[in-house]
C-alpha cells in the first residue's frame, strides 16, 4: 500500500511496480503520477522535521503534469504559493521546495532543465508576491516572461489550499480583459511551430541522430494543440488545465463548437500514440515516434492530426489578431 511507503526509494519501487499496468489508459497513468508526487511531498515534509507549515499554501504541478498529460517518463514542473509574506515563511517553503525537488529526482522525475521547480525562488512565492510577479510577466514583453505566464496557466493544485491557483488565474483573466494585446503577445510567443508535413504530403521526420526516422511528437504534434487551446482558455477565463477538458468547455461556447469538434479525438489519439512508447530510456525518448513502426492507416491518421493541429494553430492566431485590431 502507498501509505506504507517511508522513503523515496520505496516510492520509486512502488511506482515502477504499478507503472506498466497503467499504460493502456492516459488517465490511469496520470492518476498514478499524482499519487506518487503527493507521497513524495508527504515524505519531504517529514524529512524536514519542522512541524506544520507556518501558513496555508498550495503546492502545484504544471507542464504536462498540470495538464494530466504525462507519459511513462516525465520531468519536474511544480511550484508553491504560500499565504503570508515573511522572511521565515520564505525560508521554510524554499527548504521544502528543495527537498521536494530532490525527492522527485530520486523517485524518477528528473530535474527540470528550465528550473521550473519549487526549489527556484521564481516558482516559490507568497500569494502577494505571485500577483506582483504575474503582473510583471503580463506587462513585460519578453519571450521568457510570456513563456512563464503560459506555463503558470497550466498549473494544477496538488497539495494544500486549493483556491490559490484559481485565484491567480482569475487575476490573469481580468488583466487580459482590460488589455487584449496580452493575447497577441501570447500568440507571438508560440507563433512558430515545427514543420510536420512537407509540400508533397510527406511526414517530416528527424534526419539525423538517435531519433532518426521519428517524428517529434512534442513540438510537431502536441504543442500546436496545447498552445492554441491554452490561449483560448485564457481568453475565456477557464481554470481547467487538461487540454481535453478545455476543449470540452470551449465546445460549449457556440463560436468554437464547429472548429473544435474533431480536436478532442485528435488529441486523445496523440496521447494514445505516446503511451505506445514503452521501450524508452529517458524523458526525451517519450517525444519521438518512429514512423517505420506504423502501418499505412496509422500514418494517414498521424498526418491528418498534424494537419488539423496546424489549422487549429492558424485559426487561433487569426482570431486573436482580429480581436486586437
Q: Please count the helical segments.
A: 13
Biggest sheet overview: 4 strands, mixed
Strand content: 5-15%
CATH homologous superfamily heading of the largest domain = Beta Polymerase, domain 2
Number of domains: 2
The span between the termini is 57 Å
Query: What order do the SSEs take from the amino end to the carboxyl end, as H and E?
Result: HHEHEHEHHEHHEHHHHEH
How would you portray this structure in words?
With 325 residues, this protein is α+β, with helices and mostly antiparallel strands. The protein has two domains: 2-177, 2-Layer Sandwich (Beta Polymerase, domain 2); 188-323. The protein is 57% helix and 7% strand. The protein has a four-stranded mixed β-sheet with strand order 3-2-1-4. Strands 5-6 form a two-stranded antiparallel sheet. The chain is globular. The mean pLDDT is 91.
Short description:
The protein is of the alpha+beta class. The protein has 2 domains: 2-177, Beta Polymerase, domain 2, CATH 3.30.460.10; 188-323. The protein is built from 13 helices and 6 strands.
What would the keywords be for this entry?
325 residues; alpha+beta; Beta Polymerase, domain 2; 2 domains; four-stranded mixed β-sheet; two-stranded antiparallel ribbon
Amino acid at each position: 500500500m502507498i501509505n506504507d511507503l517511508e522513503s523515496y526509494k520505496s516510492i520509486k519501487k512502488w511506482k515502477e511496480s504499478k507503472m506498466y499496468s497503467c499504460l493502456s489508459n492516459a488517465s490511469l497513468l496520470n492518476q498514478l503520477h499524482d499519487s506518487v508526487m503527493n507521497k513524495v511531498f508527504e515524505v519531504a515534509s517529514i524529512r524536514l522535521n519542522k512541524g506544520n507549515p507556518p501558513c496555508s499554501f498550495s503546492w502545484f504541478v504544471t507542464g504536462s503534469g498540470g495538464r494530466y498529460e504525462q507519459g511513462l517518463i516525465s520531468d519536474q514542473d511544480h511550484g508553491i504559493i504560500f499565504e503570508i509574506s515573511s522572511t521565515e515563511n520564505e525560508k521554510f517553503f524554499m527548504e521544502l521546495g528543495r527537498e521536494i525537488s530532490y525527492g522527485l529526482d530520486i523517485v524518477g522525475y528528473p530535474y527540470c532543465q528550465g528550473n521550473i521547480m519549487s526549489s527556484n525562488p521564481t516558482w516559490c512565492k507568497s500569494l502577494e508576491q505571485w500577483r506582483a510577479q504575474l503582473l510583471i510577466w503580463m506587462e513585460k514583453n519578453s519571450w521568457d516572461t510570456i513563456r512563464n505566464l503560459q506555463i503558470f496557466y497550466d498549473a494544477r493544485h496538488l497539495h494544500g489550499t486549493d483556491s490559490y491557483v484559481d485565484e491567480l488565474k482569475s487575476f490573469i483573466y481580468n488583466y487580459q480583459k482590460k488589455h487584449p494585446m496580452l493575447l497577441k503577445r501570447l500568440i507571438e510567443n508560440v507563433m512558430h511551430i515545427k514543420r510536420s508535413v512537407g509540400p508533397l504530403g510527406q511526414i517530416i521526420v528527424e534526419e539525423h541522430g538517435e531519433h532518426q526516422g521519428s517524428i517529434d511528437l512534442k513540438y510537431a504534434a502536441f504543442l500546436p494543440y496545447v498552445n492554441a487551446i491554452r490561449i483560448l482558455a485564457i481568453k475565456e477565463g477557464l481554470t481547467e488545465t487538461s487540454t481535453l477538458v478545455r476543449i470540452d468547455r470551449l465546445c460549449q461556447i457556440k463560436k468554437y463548437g464547429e472548429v473544435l469538434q474533431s480536436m478532442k479525438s485528435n488529441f486523445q489519439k496523440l496521447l494514445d500514440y505516446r503511451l505506445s512508447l514503452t521501450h524508452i530510456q529517458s524523458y526525451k525518448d517519450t517525444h519521438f515516434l518512429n514512423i517505420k513502426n506504423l502501418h499505412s492507416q496509422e500514418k494517414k491518421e498521424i498526418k491528418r492530426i498534424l494537419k488539423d493541429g496546424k489549422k487549429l494553430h492558424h485559426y487561433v492566431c487569426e482570431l486573436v489578431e482580429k480581436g486586437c485590431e
